[in-house]
Specification:
Elements lengths: L1 E6 L5 E2 L8 E8 L2 E9 L34 H5 L3 H7 L4 E4 L4 H9 L3 E4 L4 E2 H14 L3 H12 L4 H7 L13
Parallel strand pairs: 1-5, 5-6
Antiparallel strand pairs: 1-3, 2-7, 3-4
Protein name: Vanadium nitrogenase
Keywords: Nitrogen fixation
Organism: Parasulfuritortus cantonensis
């Protein structure tokens, strides 16, 4: 199982720029399942730079896509950095899907071990979950294979499982004369 997040205003489509995203939908994905783990809500940020047009329009409380009041960090420095709170929410994720990701955020995501994935605006999250599940089962997406391998090595019971394996003395490693 790997955790994957999607920048989504309606919880069903990838339709937000990472930096402007007010909402991330988080799933735990396995070879034959996907379970919604939660939704992260963030304060709206003014976008700058060449990707600013990917920002989501403001929603009113009577809009069906409105998900409640965003979380605003107490620390003034964190309020200026729109990525810090998102990285904290996404820290256990293998990947995050968005319609655009700025260069600075891209570097920070990769530095945190989170694979940034650019999706087509409006791409259906359910179909992306099926693609990820298929890749977990059959391979084909290199970041999914890497994430699954990392998840396997992080299992807390992996050493106990290794201890239960039979020990076979193998002297093939010794230098031959």
């Amino acid at each position: 199982m790997i955790k994957v997040a999607f920048a989504s205003s309606d919880r069903t489509h990838v339709d937000l720029h990472f930096g402007a995203a007010e909402t991330f939908v988080l799933y735990d994905v396995g070879p034959d399942s996907a379970e919604l783990l939660g939704v992260g809500q963030f304060a709206r940020r003014e976008m700058r730079g060449q990707l600013k047009d990917y920002a989501v329009p403001e929603l009113s409380p009577d809009d069906p896509n409105y998900l409640g009041e965003p979380v605003i960090p107490e620390d003034p420095q964190e309020r200026e950095d729109k990525v810090t709170a998102k990285l904290e929410f996404l820290q256990e994720c293998a990947a995050v899907y968005a319609v655009a990701i700025g260069n600075s955020s891209l570097k920070r995501l990769m530095g945190a071990g989170i694979q940034p994935v650019i999706a087509r605006n409006g791409q259906d999250i359910e179909s992306l979950l099926r693609e990820i599940a298929a890749a977990l089962d059959h391979g084909g997406m290199s970041w999914v294979v890497r994430a699954a391998n990392r998840a396997q090595t992080r299992r807390p019971d992996r050493f106990a499982a290794m201890a239960r394996e039979p020990w076979v003395e193998d002297e093939s490693w010794q230098a031959r004369a």
